[in-house]
Amino acid sequence: MKKIFPTLIKISSLGIISFLMMQPAMAAKFKCWTNSDGVKECGSFVPPEYSQKRIETRGKSGRVLEVKERAKTKAELDEIDRLAKLKEIEDAKIAEQKKADDILLKTFTRERDINMLRDSKVNVIEGIITVTKSNNKALKKKLEKLHKRAANIERSGKKPPKTILDDITVIEHRIKKNKKSIKSKRNEQKIIRERFAKDLKHFKELKSKTKTR
User: Fold this and answer.
1) Crossing angle, helix 162-212 and helix 111-155, to 10 degrees?
2) Is the distance from CB of 34 to CB of 41 less than 8 angstroms?
3) pTM (2 decimals)?
4) 89 vs 44, which has greater pLDDT?
């Protein structure tokens, strides 16, 4: 029994037209690909080892009817996935910024409004700092009295009662804690000023863009 082999022709410098002239009996469509030696081949079927390559389906005239691009490598697919994730993150950032811009423009109508709210927040914290400083001042006076009492008792040759020593420890701890609180509140004021300065700058930019539209 005679075996029938599909037509397979290597395309040389004569090109596709020469190939068609040599294959008058070929079907209405044929496929072309590039082999492992970089030589273009055409035939009625694509060998399995080239099935993942770029494949052109051509008609009788040699015109390209369809193109199946080569299969992407794992590295290429990973890169596509990486870029897609980066775009997703970037799009989310843009959307988040747009939302923040809208809130900024809806919240404030003038630069003065931003400055007033900033001062309001800073002044509230300043009030807390003032009260804390006042408390510390009173605690220091009380601490001085306790130290004097303890010193007088020691001069008489006795040991100060545990209650006095405990009170001294508690007050010293409260003074130290209040100092830390004041430092923290000062830092909070600094952060507020910096944030509002940034908001004010961005507000001006947004308003400027609105005017130029």
Assistant:
1) 170
2) yes
3) 0.59
4) 89
